[in-house]
Design goal:
about 120 residues, mainly alpha, Membrane-bound Lytic Murein Transglycosylase D, Chain A, 2 domains, 4 helices, rod-shaped
Length: about 120
């Protein structure tokens, strides 16, 4: 018998280890999945923080606000006319509603409202 016939040549695939589907996932797929999740988290983090200064700069100039105590018989129309006489009363009423989180036009005497002023 020749010595060449008894020698086995081992290659990388025949080293005695055979990866099944789960093993290939753990060896290749899981690290790739972790990298994708980390990249998405980094993109979300830096994307949100990168947009924050731009969002803050779009607000525009701040408007001045004053407080008014509601008197007996006062309406939002009257208060809007006194607080910002040069502005549109409808817009001023909407702004008063936003500033005070009003759900309607019901006011109580003694109630304190924040109102926009001309300025």
């Amino acid at each position: 018998m020749s010595t060449a016939a008894s020698v086995q040549i081992r290659t990388a695939g025949s080293a005695g280890y055979h990866l099944n589907r789960r093993g290939r996932f753990l060896l290749v797929g899981f690290p790739v999945l972790v990298l994708v999740v980390l990249a998405a988290a980094a993109a979300a983090f830096f994307g949100i923080n990168g947009m924050a200064p731009a969002a803050a700069s779009e607000e525009g100039p701040s408007r001045s606000v004053d407080s008014v105590t509601v008197g007996y018989g006062d309406t939002l129309w009257d208060i809007a006319g006194r607080s910002a006489p040069d502005a549109s009363r409808n817009e001023t009423i909407l702004r008063i509603g936003e500033l005070n989180s009003l759900n309607g036009a019901d006011l109580q005497p003694g109630q304190v409202l924040f109102v926009p002023t001309n300025g």
